[in-house]
């Protein structure tokens, strides 16, 4: 049975939506106000706030409030668990493909005999 990591699931869920990925891309440049993040999406502010809530729950962004202005900032290290998991998966599949390649080469040599 596969081991389920809630944090990893939250990260993948947060990144599964193109609007949220676009917001993260924008925040990679610099922190931004919520209204600035909402403008290019064409979505209403409550919808953008729900997207930001998903990103914040996954730990990908932080928000601060100064008076009526809410500013969001990217938390790049929040992607580390996902990066680690993907590297582990890559290593597993690389090993499987190496074994398969060795098997095919052995079979081809045996067929030539």
TrEMBL record:
The portions of this protein that span the membrane are: none
InterPro entries to which the protein is assigned, alphabetical:
ArsR-like_HTH (IPR011991), HTH_ArsR_DNA-bd_dom (IPR001845), WH-like_DNA-bd_sf (IPR036388), WH_DNA-bd_sf (IPR036390)
Which part of the chain is the HTH arsR-type domain?
1-94
Q: Name one Pfam family in it.
A: HTH_20
**Which Gene Ontology molecular function entries are recorded, alphabetically?**
DNA-binding transcription factor activity
* Stated name of the protein: ArsR family transcriptional regulator
Organism annotation: Arsenicitalea aurantiaca
């Amino acid at each position: 049975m596969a081991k389920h990591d809630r944090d990893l699931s939250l990260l993948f869920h947060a990144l599964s939506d193109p609007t949220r990925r676009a917001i993260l891309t924008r925040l990679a440049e610099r922190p931004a106000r919520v209204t600035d993040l909402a403008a290019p999406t064409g979505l209403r502010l409550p919808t953008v706030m729900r997207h930001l809530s998903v990103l914040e729950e996954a730990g990908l962004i932080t928000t601060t409030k100064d008076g009526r202005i809410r500013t969001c900032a990217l938390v790049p290290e929040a992607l580390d668990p996902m990066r680690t998991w993907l590297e582990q998966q890559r290593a597993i599949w690389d090993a499987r493909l190496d074994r398969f390649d060795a098997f095919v080469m052995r079979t081809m040599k045996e067929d030539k005999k």
